[in-house]
Amino acid sequence: MRLEERINTYGRYLRNKYGCRVFRVGITFRAACAHRLSSGGCIFCLPETFMVSSIVDDEDFINIGYRQLHELAPKVRNGVGEGDGLSLLAYFQDGLPNDTDVPELERMFIRTTDYPGVRGIIVSSRCDSIDEVFLSMLSKLPIDTYLELGLQSSHQSSLDLLNRHENINDIKSVLDLCSDYGIHVGVHLIIGIPNENESDILQTIDFVNSYPVIKEVKLHNLTVYKGTRLADYYSDKLDEIPDLDCYLHLLGRIIARLRKDIVVSRLFTSNVRGNNRAIKPFLGVKRNWLSRLSKHLEEQQIFQGINCPVR
Ligand code: SF4
Q1: From the CB of 96, is ligand 1 less than 6 Å away?
Q2: What separation in angstroms does the CA of 297 have from each of 64, 242, 290, 292?
Q3: Least buried of 78, 98, 159, 257, by fewest C-beta within 10 Å?
Q4: What pLDDT sits at residue 38?
Q5: In Å, how far are 101, 121, 282 from 179, measured between CA atoms?
Q6: How many CA atoms lie within 13 A of 117 on its CB side?
Q7: 226-241 burial, b if ≥16 CB within 10 A, otherwise e?
Q8: Is any ligand 1 atom within 6 A of the Cβ of residue 165?
Q9: Where do the structural domains in the chain lie, given as residue ranges?
Q10: 204-215, pLDDT tens digit by residue?
Q11: Which residues does 234 contact at the CB level (< 8 Å), separation at least 6?
């Protein structure tokens, strides 16, 4: 049985929604993370592993998305062997710029969607960068919009340990606000946060399940990058970094618990640029991890949502 018969995968979601293959093209604002500047940043974060490199200068803010698409989309289209017909989602993946001017952002998003083949935009952000004015603008854009929020865990102690500098009650308020504005929300979760056991992780899944506004999850296996404070944390206990077997077991439990309608848009931290900077990365390649996950789900007869208390 194929993985997408057991899991509500992102590929299946996009095919059903758009009737064709759709690819994300990563776009950067090239803005420094405000949380890093003010509070030292998250202990796991190594910006060079996820920031998009682009030759486009950022003086002309309104055109920042369009011009990066102009540079990157042909490479994506060639890479997947499809021509100009390939549909795209413009993925603003490294957080909103500091001191975001909402009307200017709106103009920039609309200009981005002038690029041929763009079907919508994805905006990734911390919850503390989101306010009502921004959500109101996002909800009125004449294109498909998706908002990705870094949740990581529903446990305050874990948010504190990771130095997220966010309060879970503020996160709940942002989710409620997103619900009021009918925003399509995806959340990032880190699986394997220090001191979290299986029951803690499943409580975070229950938290996600309890918010109908959450339509997607991105699951990240904890990745310990050299030079981060997380690497310092593990320096004398490397054997405690969760390995692939442990992660596959947890994934099985998570998938069984997760609401059936939630789209799983990532199953592994699969960052090619970052892999050689990680301590104890999973060996092998994503294709093999997926095939082991498939086998595990098959053996355990796991389907997404079979143990979900929310129907
Ligand atoms: S994970 Fe995001 S919020 Fe945290 S330091 Fe990195 S860029 Fe900033």
Answers
A1: no
A2: 43, 19, 10, 9
A3: 78
A4: 92
A5: 23, 18, 37
A6: 22
A7: eebebbebbeeeeeeb
A8: no
A9: 3-300
A10: 999 999 999 999
A11: 224, 240, 241, 279
CA–CA separation, 286 and 25 (whole Å): 20
- The residue-averaged pLDDT of 106-123 equals 96
CA–centroid distance, residue 138 to ligand 1 (Å) = 22
Q: Atom 5 of ligand 1 has which residue's CA nearest to it?
A: 41
Is domain 3-300 annotated with CATH 3.40.50.11740? Answer: no
Q: Which atom of ligand 1 is nearest to the CA of 36?
A: 5
Read off the pLDDT of residues 243-286 as tens digits, 9 standing for 90 and up.
999 999 999 999 999 999 999 999 999 665 556 889 999 988 89
Which token pair is 132? 């009502």
CA of 46 to the centre of ligand 1 (A): 8
108 CA → ligand 1 middle, Å: 23
Choosing from 39, 42, 51 the residue with most ligand 1 atoms within 8 A of its CB, the one to mutate for a pocket test is 42
